[in-house]
Write a structure and sequence with these properties.
Elements lengths: L1 E5 L5 E5 L10 E6 L3 E9 L9 E9 L2 H13 L4 E5 L5 H10 L4 E4 L14 H13 L11 H33 L14 H12 L4 H5 L10 H7 L6 H31 L4 H7 L7 H11 L9 H7 L8 E2 L2 E2 L10 H14 L5 H13 L1 H21 L12 H4 L3 H16 L10
Parallel strand pairs: 3-6, 6-7
Antiparallel strand pairs: 1-2, 3-4, 4-5, 8-9
Helix pairs in contact: 4-8, 4-10, 5-8, 10-12, 11-14, 12-14, 13-14
Length: about 425
């Protein structure tokens, strides 16, 4: 504990009181691999003549279910209060979930937070012992592990996003094939796979090569582009291209069916959270799909994040402060966070940037001054804070500040001086203001 008081001479007096971290009496630590794990259990030695001494036991187990159940029995016999393990790829998940289901209290730890002292020997046994000592002294904290319903929702939303990405890649391959055959359809139509573009593609694959006939398949507003469509559809699309394009279209359609099926599965899984999805849907740029992904990645229990800043920091959407000798590092990086959450927030910010809302104006202002990447992070920061407040207090409505919020809250003197500077830079002359008659 640090106490600061003002002395008689006007200088600050700082007193430091050491606070002993809370010790975990009975702790276990696991160093997990794919085929086996090493478990270290540290418990106090009973007896008056050995105060403070601890008994340490280290055992090895395979990661098969039968051996993991034996590990759980041993931990219960030793009266272990806390089981800690590092996040090592996907290998920690079955161990964590099984021990959690067996009634043991488990912590998942960030490997960067419990890294061993460099220069020491490194083995599975020594790593397990080190991890147990770090945990029992209270020198680390647990990472976020969602409850089972949120984990299941996250698995489905992530797999759906993977399918959407694969569908997008297949569409890009088909567009590249059209470019290879001198079919410039994507230069005229914004969505090649819309109603008009899809009908033209299927006709090309079926053997129709006449540009005039193909251009007449345009619908709606595309009818006004028939002349340029004829030019864009004039190329050397051959049977070779048709065979490849047919397979690509089939794959795109199959992926679309899979995505639609998972949409139904996810709707059933998020039925208990429909009210929260409706709340998040009020945020500009957020739709039902992105709201489902946000809940799948963040969860609904905001008690794990004491403030909105904690959520932003966990998601790595805030620059890391780095100072040395009184100097800070300008434009600090945010670090590597959850890539799935970052992808969802990127889509939300891109959608919000096209709206006439507060978030849209914030994105455009920052993009002009700092660039699109920094604007994306800054507005994503704002979106996460809004999400935290809505999930923390669902009865609190979302209030749109409006596109003109910045202009309405600007200092008139600052605005005047900025306009004078811009006018002087534009004309190269000195500007002097005089009061109006």
């Amino acid at each position: 504990m640090v106490e600061v008081a003002m002395g008689a001479d006007g200088c600050e007096e700082v007193s430091v009181t050491e606070v002993e971290p809370e010790m975990v009496s009975r702790v276990a630590a696991l160093d997990i691999g794919k085929a086996k794990l090493t478990a270290c259990v540290r418990v106090p030695v009973e007896g008056r003549d050995s105060p403070g001494r601890r008994l340490q036991q280290v055992r090895e187990y395979s990661t098969l279910t039968r051996d993991l159940l034996g590990l759980a029995d041993w931990l219960r016999v030793e009266g272990v209060e806390l089981v800690a393990m590092e996040a090592t790829g996907a290998y920690w998940k079955p161990v964590f979930y099984l021990l959690e289901a067996e009634g043991l209290r488990c912590w998942l730890l960030n490997p960067r937070h419990v890294k061993n002292v460099p220069g020491r020997p490194k083995t599975d046994r020594l790593d397990a012992v080190w991890l147990a000592k770090v945990v029992e002294r209270g020198m680390c904290g647990p990472s976020l592990v969602h409850p089972k319903p949120i984990r299941q929702l996250r698995d489905l939303t992530r797999y759906r996003r993977s399918l959407v990405r694969e569908q997008t890649r297949e569409k890009q391959r088909l567009e590249k094939l059209l470019e290879d055959s001198q079919i410039k359809l994507s230069s005229v139509i914004s969505d090649v796979f819309g109603v008009s573009g899809r009908q033209m593609l299927e006709a090309l694959i079926a053997g129709q090569r006449n540009p005039r006939v193909l251009a007449q398949m345009a619908h709606g507003s595309m009818r006004g582009k028939i002349g340029i469509l004829e030019e864009a559809l004039t190329g050397h699309f051959e049977d070779h291209h048709a065979r490849i394009a047919r397979r690509m279209l089939h794959r795109i359609d199959d992926l679309a069916l899979d995505i639609a099926g998972w949409d139904i599965e996810i709707e059933l899984l998020v039925a208990p959270f429909q009210d929260l999805i409706g709340l998040l849907d009020q945020i500009p740029g957020v739709n039902a799909r992105s709201a489902e992904e946000l809940i799948g990645e963040i969860g609904i229990d905001m008690s794990r994040f004491p403030t909105a800043a904690h959520l932003v920091s966990w998601a790595k959407f805030a620059p890391i402060a780095k100072t040395s000798a009184g100097r800070g590092t300008p434009g600090g990086k945010t670090g590597k966070g959850n890539p799935w959450l970052a992808g969802t927030l990127g889509e939300v910010v891109a959608g919000a940037g096209r709206t006439h809302t507060f978030l849209g104006e914030r994105y455009r202002r920052l993009a002009r001054r700092r660039g699109k990447d920094r604007a994306m992070v800054a507005v994503g920061n704002s979106v996460l804070k809004i999400v935290w407040h809505l999930l923390t207090d669902p009865d609190q409505p979302y209030i749109e500040l409006g596109e003109g919020w910045y202009e309405n809250h600007r200092n008139p003197a600052h605005r005047k001086s900025e306009l004078i500077r811009q006018l002087q830079a534009l004309t190269g002359q000195r500007v002097i203001l005089e009061p109006a008659a």
